[in-house]
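Long-time lurker. I teach an intro course on protein structure, and each term I like to show students one example going from raw sequence to a predicted 3D structure in token notation. This year I'd like something fresh instead of my usual example. Would anyone be willing to generate the tokens for the chain below so I can use it in lecture? Attribution to the forum is fine with me.
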Amino acid sequence: MECFAKKQAAGYYLEKTPPHSLHIMDIANYYKQAKFVAIRRNIIDQIKSTSRRNKLISGKQIGRLKELFLNIKRVIVYHTYYKHILHFMSKQPDRIILIEYEELKNSTRETVIRVCEFLGIDFQAGMLEQRYRANTSFINNAERKNVLSKADERLIKTLDPLFGLLPYSLYHLGYRIKQKRQVQKLPDWFFRRKRDQYGLTYYKDEHWKRYKSQLKG
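-- Reply from a regular --
Happy to contribute to a lecture. Here you go:
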């Protein structure tokens, strides 16, 4: 992404991988001035998009039981991300703003102005211009409507409030258990500035412990 941005003469690029919300506390601790803009999408629409994208990537049809399992997993993952975001909001509300995707789509100008105020930057009308083609997994609304069966949607709507009731502590425990199984807890690009600052030239898994000791030193 960095090389591509340079070729396009772009000063910035946006990295919006949803799993990085699990690292929000770590990122906030490393970058004390960082602010976060979180966007929450309707769970049905979110899972439709994920399901369609995965099918396009794999190019394969999957069995009914596997699809059922994946949809349950997607509900859990959805709540895992937002539980971490909401927990961070409860701890440092001045550093994060949570907006609804539907609000952004239907009241774009008002929402963008609110985000600008939160970030402490001036709103400019040019921010509302859509300079890039919409990035979507669907050809049309009919395809979007049919990506999940009625039974799938009923299942998701049933599980959604149930998983929403589970406390953050359970989701955090699952995250910590997963962390223990991974040597590197944050993506490579995250440490680029730290690497440059301390003259480090590598940070692969096998060098992770040495990198952390150098960083602390």
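Some talking points for your students: The first helix runs from residue 2 to 7. Residues 198-207 have pLDDT under 50 and may be disordered.
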